[in-house]
């Protein structure tokens, strides 16, 4: 029997209804949740992502600001802009879309965002809080993956979880969240020997490599949960993930589609983090 789909669109809709309701309550107290999104340069995928983030804010009644800068923007100018947003009481979340142009040191920029407005959860203070099990803002993509697992009541405690990809944005925070939920976690990277040996043992397989067909059907454990974070554009314009979906769907128990799996959940959890930042500001 083919795997059940982990439908990120349907789950997002449900969670966004709750976010809109909570947003209305905090707005009635005089604090309308506000998100500022900054994008530097013309990366076409980034342009789509930031537009989707701002549109999602509008849909749930949040205030949003999209600031687009040319790739020539200087690092100091960007830092000055962040300082202004840090001090702006109408803004509760600040997101600088990655990647940044090479002449800008991304880590300096991420550290400049006030930790209480760091709705991406990328500031070292928030990464550290997550590491010690006291997260303030969970990075949106791993947070969304956890919500997908919760939606099927998957027994994470004691499960073997394998994450392919060790980025600061997805792989590492995903490992922390799964570890704290009681999974036995392995993080694989581009140098891992015999990747299939690890993935075939995974009750929960999370793949975030940005490489189309990185995971073949025979690398997946029968009945497992496969969460595909990859978004790759094929030469014919179609979007696909890092997992060979058409093969893996006959082996996995649950699988996320691309598009329509993790992608919408990432934006939903960004809204959740922005809402929570506003709720804290209203206290
Ligand atoms: N680039 C790819 N994913 C993300 C994300 O979740 N946040 C930001 N700021 N940039 C990204």
Automatic annotation (TrEMBL):
UniProtKB keywords: Amino-acid biosynthesis, Histidine biosynthesis, Hydrolase, Methionine biosynthesis, Multifunctional enzyme, NADP, One-carbon metabolism, Oxidoreductase, Purine biosynthesis
Gene Ontology molecular function: any one: methenyltetrahydrofolate cyclohydrolase activity
Keyword Hydrolase belongs to the record: yes
Tetrahydrofolate dehydrogenase/cyclohydrolase NAD(P)-binding domain location: 139-281
Residues reported to bind NADP(+): 165-167, 231
Pfam families: THF_DHG_CYH, THF_DHG_CYH_C
Catalytic activity: (6R)-5,10-methenyltetrahydrofolate + H2O = (6R)-10-formyltetrahydrofolate + H(+); (6R)-5,10-methylene-5,6,7,8-tetrahydrofolate + NADP(+) = (6R)-5,10-methenyltetrahydrofolate + NADPH
EC number(s) recorded for this UniProt protein: 1.5.1.5, 3.5.4.9
Pathway: One-carbon metabolism; tetrahydrofolate interconversion
Signal sequence, renumbered to the chain: none
SUPFAM superfamilies: Aminoacid dehydrogenase-like, N-terminal domain, NAD(P)-binding Rossmann-fold domains
GO CC, any one term: cytosol
Self-association and partners: Homodimer.
Function: Catalyzes the oxidation of 5,10-methylenetetrahydrofolate to 5,10-methenyltetrahydrofolate and then the hydrolysis of 5,10-methenyltetrahydrofolate to 10-formyltetrahydrofolate.
Name used for this protein in its record: Bifunctional protein FolD
Species of the source: Polynucleobacter campilacus
